[in-house]
Amino acid sequence: MVVAGVAVAEAPGPLGVGIGWREEIDLSIARLPGVDWVEVVAENLHTEHLPETLLALAERGIPVLPHGVSLSLGSAEPLDTRRVEHLAEVTGALGAPMASDHVCFVRAGGLDSGHLLPLPRTREALNVLVDNVKLTRS
């Protein structure tokens, strides 16, 4: 799969049990039994200053999977390509096999809700979502 020009490998299959990375528990994650992967909020990372503990987890073979919370894939407004590029850069920097974001919208009419809002349950909303996911993947 390609996300904003960065090749991202498809997940090889079930990834097992994951945990959300937080700075407060970052040193403990590597010692937890049964943790197969770690999720990190992509918007909280900058590729030039990745936390050492995340890099150490990735080097130990524990997938660190970036998860976006602001792409607004369900919004009928154009995608913010800078957000897509950031997600792709973080994914590449961590060597992550995949990245994710919420199926929701967070922006409309020039306003940002600050929340993950549900999509209307309409064919039109689904079509917008599909188009935005396709754009994100290309």
Largest sheet: 4 strands, parallel
Indicate the overall shape: elongated
Q: What's the Cα radius of gyration?
A: 16 Å
- Quaternary structure classification: single chain
What is the CATH class? Alpha Beta
User: Taking strands numbered 1, 2, ... along the chain, how are they ordered across the largest sheet?
Assistant: 3-4-5-6
Q: If classified by CATH, what would the architecture be? A: Alpha-Beta Barrel
Reading the helices and strands in chain order gives EEEHEHEHEEEH
Number of domains: 1
Q: Percentage of helical residues?
A: 25-40%
- Low-confidence blocks of residues: 1-9
In CATH terms, the superfamily is: Divalent-metal-dependent TIM barrel enzymes
The computed structural class is alpha/beta
Q: Could you name the CATH topology? A: TIM Barrel
Q: Would you count the extended β strands for me? A: 8
Count of helices?
A: 4
Percentage of residues in DSSP E strands = 15-25%
End-to-end distance? 8 Å
Mean pLDDT: 86
Write up this protein.
This protein has 138 residues and is of the alpha/beta class. The chain has one domain (2-137): Divalent-metal-dependent TIM barrel enzymes (TIM Barrel, Alpha-Beta Barrel), CATH 3.20.20.150. It is 30% helix and 22% strand. The protein is built from four helices and eight strands, in the order βββαβαβαβββα. It has helices at residues 26-29, 52-59, 81-94, 123-137; strands at 2-3, 6-7, 18-20, 37-41, 64-68, 100-101, 105-108, 111-117. A four-stranded parallel sheet has the order 3-4-5-6. A two-stranded antiparallel sheet has the order 1-2. It has a two-stranded antiparallel ribbon with strand order 7-8. Strand 4 (37-41), helix 2 and strand 5 form a beta-alpha-beta unit. Residues 1-9 have low confidence and may be disordered.
